[in-house]
Structure to design on (274 residues):
């Protein structure tokens, strides 16, 4: 992991919806080659932050930089083109399409566009490109171990498999940074272990930087290099997983631990004679 080079930087990002503040003055950096997790209680602003990074929301204040470029006002489709991929908290697959076709959708930004540049290509190179894209998709299918459902209709699959297909579609972008919004929500223990293994392999073998929202603290502790904690839209902690977990502010906000109150023991009551 390149410990000092940020691939993503959020600079004092705030987001408001009318009078509601979803994010307030949030700053952080994600370094190239790391797994960076965002945690916090429900409503803390985690998905709002990811939506600002992916372009779904535009920050009310502040800036977001990716690979040195200011992307604060860049459209979502252009963020995909420069190397930002994502999955969603709620599944966003095309349920009527096959697994293979869903993953192929993730290659759309790599296709040739435009009439004058596209016409010679479609005359002479379309078949070669189709073969290259399918080869890439088949590699992803093998990596995520979904060969047995590659021709199945996505809407007929189990929840765990659909989450894996959505990850495959995001990976098909070949992003530099992949945003994972609760990739293990609703999974059983075996499915979580598989997903954690895939995320680590994407990071270590495929060289993808990962920004992940996740509620399972066991997973966060096991696979994250660094963790940021949000509470009511504000950053309250950032650092290595063990440091963050030990922070008393985090334990109060995220784990629901109250401040310890020392009180004197109550005197035993004498039994009442009847």
């Amino acid at each position: 992991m390149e410990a000092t080079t940020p691939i993503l930087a959020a600079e004092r990002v705030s987001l408001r919806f009318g009078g509601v503040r979803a994010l307030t003055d949030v700053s952080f950096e994600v370094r190239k080659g790391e797994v960076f997790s965002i945690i916090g209680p429900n409503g803390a602003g985690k998905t709002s932050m990811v939506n600002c990074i992916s372009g779904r929301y535009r920050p009310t204040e502040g800036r977001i930089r990716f690979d040195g470029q200011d992307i604060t006002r860049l459209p979502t489709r252009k963020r995909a083109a420069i190397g930002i991929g994502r999955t969603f908290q709620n599944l966003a697959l095309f349920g009527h399409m096959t697994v293979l076709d869903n993953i192929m959708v993730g290659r759309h930004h790599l296709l040739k566009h435009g009439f004058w540049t596209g016409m010679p290509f479609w005359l002479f190179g379309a078949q070669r490109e189709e073969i290259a894209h399918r080869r890439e998709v088949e590699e992803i299918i093998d990596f995520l171990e979904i060969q047995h459902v590659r021709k199945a209709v996505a809407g007929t699959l189990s929840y765990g498999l659909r989450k894996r297909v959505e990850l495959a579609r995001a990976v098909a972008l070949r992003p530099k940074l992949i945003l994972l919004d609760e990739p293990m929500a609703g999974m059983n223990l075996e499915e979580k272990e598989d997903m954690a293994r895939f995320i680590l392999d994407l990071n270590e073998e495929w060289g993808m930087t990962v920004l992940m929202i996740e509620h399972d603290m066991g997973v966060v502790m096991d696979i994250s290099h660094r963790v940021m904690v949000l509470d009511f839209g504000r950053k309250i902690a950032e650092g290595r997983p063990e440091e963050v977990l030990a922070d008393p502010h985090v334990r109060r906000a995220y784990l629901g631990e109250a401040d310890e109150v020392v009180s004197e023991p109550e005197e035993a009551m004498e039994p009442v004679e009847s």
